[in-house]
Fold this sequence. Notes:
The protein has helices spanning 11-20, 45-55, 64-69, 91-104, 156-162, 180-186, 193-196, 199-202, 234-238, 272-284, 297-307, 325-341, 353-364, 366-371, 391-405, 431-450, 466-488; strands spanning 60-61, 84-86, 108-111, 128-131, 138-142, 147-150, 168-169, 203-209, 215-217, 247-254, 256-257, 261-269, 289-295, 315-323, 378-381, 384-385, 411-414, 419-426. By secondary structure, the protein is of the alpha+beta class. Strand 8 and strand 9 form a beta hairpin.
Amino acid sequence: xxxxxxxxxxxxxxxxxxxxxxxxxxxxxxxxxxxxxxxxxxxxxxxxxxxxxxxxxxxxxxxxxxxxxxxxxxxxxxxxxxxxxxxxxxxxxxxxxxxxxxxxxxxxxxxxxxxxxxxxxxxxxxxxxxxxxxxxxxxxxxxxxxxxxxxxxxxxxxxxxxxxxxxxxxxxxxxxxxxxxxxxxxxxxxxxxxxxxxxxxxxxxxxxxxxxxxxxxxxxxxxxxxxxxxxxxxxxxxxxxxxxxxxxxxxxxxxxxxxxxxxxxxxxxxxxxxxxxxxxxxxxxxxxxxxxxxxxxxxxxxxxxxxxxxxxxxxxxxxxxxxxxxxxxxxxxxxxxxxxxxxxxxxxxxxxxxxxxxxxxxxxxxxxxxxxxxxxxxxxxxxxxxxxxxxxxxxxxxxxxxxxxxxxxxxxxxxxxxxxxxxxxxxxxxxxxxxxxxxxxxxxxxxxxxxxxxxxxxxxxxxxxxxxxxxxxxxxxxxxxxxxxxxxxxxxxxxxxxxx
Length: 500
């Protein structure tokens, strides 16, 4: 047997440093730009050579820059590089690598595109990072069954480009051009979720390499039924598992027909409450809206200036309707009436592709627009989701809390399904401001849970929301999750330190 490791870094040490990041006077804040890069790889040379024997020398790296690149995502969590990065080319190699790490008790961290927002790829105990981006085959496409099977290197934009001309598309759109298997792993959502759902209902089957190298097809090999009642729902178990139960090496996805006609509009309101109330009324009227996105006055102004579109500095909704040309006209009429009743501005509809894409590009660049409000500062995105009936109250209370806290935190959200974000822009080297950010995020998470909602609607738990997860599920819920984790990964090798 290969001698794998010298003693690995312990999770408790990383957690101690991670917690200190929020505390006044902490030097850990200075590690935001990959503060673990000074640490030396802890895997033995023999073990690294064995990895090279499996995937080839060009597909293994211990270079500091490569390790740092794979030690963080887009979140504010301090970078924690793996000890080595591997690029498997096929599922058999993933199995062989996983079995090797399992035998030698080496931590394993899956990596897709690194666009997550909760530190999900940070290798807090070192180990081996599996970069799956070179497994990029679109294996099966069935137009008649409205399904496609993809490997983890396929991103959502690449898939929709491949589908061009078929009359089908994959609508789950988190903004970033994320890996589809990574989106499944985090239970991603996005602007289209109000009509087409999140990743969970759009994943029909998963091919998973378990921590010991065994291969699992969650709905059975080659199966893609639209519904099933055969045993426990293993597919849903792995959707949202955040790399803690196994490697998602293939996903069979549900496709949707492209709408015949599409129309987008932007409307502003006299207050945040009026904009959110309009959202509720649109849904209650059963308007089959495809997207309904909210920007508060700070975000609307920032997005308008960043994109050059010059939006009014007012609470704003972006609405998109899909349907036949006849049904679309009826939907537009309904929407205009509801907007008017809630004090919204008059509507001008964009139906051309270029104009529609320009509007959504403005919305998808909200993160960068927010960062531009305070150049040189850092950003942190909250991610609560509440029942639609409680959305107006929670959004208004959150807005008041933001103002009272003296924080820069423009609000944006997929309010059609009750999910909204505060993009907090702050000086991470100012301990007092960092502490206010932390306190605000905790209050927000608890406010959402008190309203019957969740501390994370789409970003996942990762590193930062583990305490809130325990409050949300209770001890029995958390114990159940730990039992599942222990059954599938008894040595806690898959992405340790995350979720639980």
